[in-house]
Amino acid sequence: LMLELSKPELILNEHGINDTVVIFGSARTTSPEQAEQERADIEAALKTQANDSALRRRLARAKNRQKQARYYQQATQLAELITRESRLPGVPTLHVVTGGGPGIMQAANKGASDAKGKSVGLNITIPREQEPNPFITPELCFNFHYFAIRKMHFLMRAKALAVFPGGFGTLDELFETLTLVQTRKIKAFPILLFGKDYWQNIINFEALIEHGMIDEEDLKSFRYVDTSEQAWHIIRDNLQADGNDR
Q1: What is residue 126's predicted lDDT score, i.e. its pLDDT?
Q2: Which residues lie across from 200 on neighbouring strands?
Q3: Which end of the chain, C or N, has fewer beta carbons within 10 A?
């Protein structure tokens, strides 16, 4: 536990990583090119196996993944914006932090790399999906055994959180952050949810209010966003407001 806490801390300090934007999202989201190729391969197979019900189910899933692939592009664009624009006056130098794996995580590390910047990957040892992606800055790629320590590192330097559609892991990370903000264990910062339709379809926040489980004020802890540019403007404006307050 102490090793996983202290080693990344020492290395991040050595590299001057002080302010970060954390990007969460599904490891299963693929690039538009990959999604298109998967769909094309299944459609080609169906031409000779038209009655294969398993293939038809795979095609339906492939079509959904193709729709989700736009989030891969948005994560890449956002990370590139963060890395490039935070070098300008009035904004602290920001570094992108991800969970280090494929999907949305890879897209974000790629965006930072495309902008010639460093980015961090906080990987975790689990049975599948979690090999370090090739776009993490090599000396800033860490491997964790304990989820709790990894999640501490996600938030210790965070100035904003961008959350793309994802599954259990993404939900876990999102709700832990919302809980810490709600209970004032961490200072509030922008929590940006990409894909309003997705989030409102899988989480009924209004029902939590109706049942008295959260306050209406708690819904102000996050915002829905549609584009990487919108997300960056919110992050930038919040940082500049914080700087003026100091």
Answers
A1: 79
A2: none
A3: C
The whole-angstrom separation of Cα 152 and Cα 144 is 11
Q: Over the stretch 133-162, which tens digit does the pLDDT of each residue have?
A: 999 999 999 999 999 999 999 999 999 999
**Across 27-41, 78-92, 122-136, 229-243, least confident range:** 122-136
CA dihedral 230, 234, 239, 244 (to 10 degrees): 120
- pLDDT tens string 39-68: 899 989 988 888 888 898 999 888 988 999
Neighbouring C-alpha atoms within 13 Å toward the C-beta of 120: 28
Which residues make beta-bridge pairs with 96?
Answer: 21, 119
Q: How far is CA 169 from CA 16, 55, 60, 176, 219, in A?
A: 28, 28, 24, 11, 21
- Calpha distance 242→246 (Å, rounded): 6
Q: How far is CA 72 from CA 16, 28, 62, 67, 196, in A?
A: 28, 10, 15, 10, 16
Cα gap 210→227, rounded to integer Å: 30
